[in-house]
Backbone:
């Protein structure tokens, strides 16, 4: 394993094991805010994020999505609109950890649900581990399970369908 990865794992482990306030699960109907982290370079994930934003907005939830663009600069013509924001590699340090004030603002927001569509990327899991969200959700395929409160196995089922099913059942 490369030294950079070992250092990153150390910081992730340190963050995950910090004492956090007791977690509370907010029932779906009572939830007011949702945060969504995703890889904006993956078309399927981007469509899933946009569909989730639309669904939650239709349920009168305040939704903020944050998509990662794997480049030093934003592409020409990228439009940031309400509910759809982006960050790129210039917002991360050399370990791939968030350093920009915009990312820290997202991390510190007390979402009722934080949904990470790409748990395989360590930066998303690190952000989830630091997040003030009440419930953190990701696919069960993530290697960083300690950062999340609810894991969904969506290999054979649609992630959105499964997410809504469990959010409505639990609450």
Residues:
């Amino acid at each position: 394993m490369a030294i950079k990865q070992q250092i990153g794992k150390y910081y992730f482990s340190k963050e995950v094991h910090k004492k956090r306030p007791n977690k509370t699960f907010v029932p779906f109907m009572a939830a007011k805010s949702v945060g969504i982290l995703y890889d904006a370079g993956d078309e399927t994930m981007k469509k899933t994020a946009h569909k989730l934003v639309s669904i939650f907005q239709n349920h009168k939830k305040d939704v903020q999505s944050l998509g990662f663009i794997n480049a030093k600069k934003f592409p020409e013509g990228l439009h940031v609109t309400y509910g759809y924001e982006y960050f790129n590699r210039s917002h991360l340090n050399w370990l791939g950890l968030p350093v920009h004030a915009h990312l820290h603002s997202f991390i510190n927001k007390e979402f009722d649900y934080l949904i990470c569509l790409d748990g395989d990327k360590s930066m998303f899991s690190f952000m989830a581990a630091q997040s003030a969200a009440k419930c953190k959700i990701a696919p069960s395929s993530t290697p960083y399970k300690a950062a999340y409160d609810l894991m969904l196995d969506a290999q054979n089922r649609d992630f959105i369908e499964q997410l809504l099913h469990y959010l409505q059942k639990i609450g």
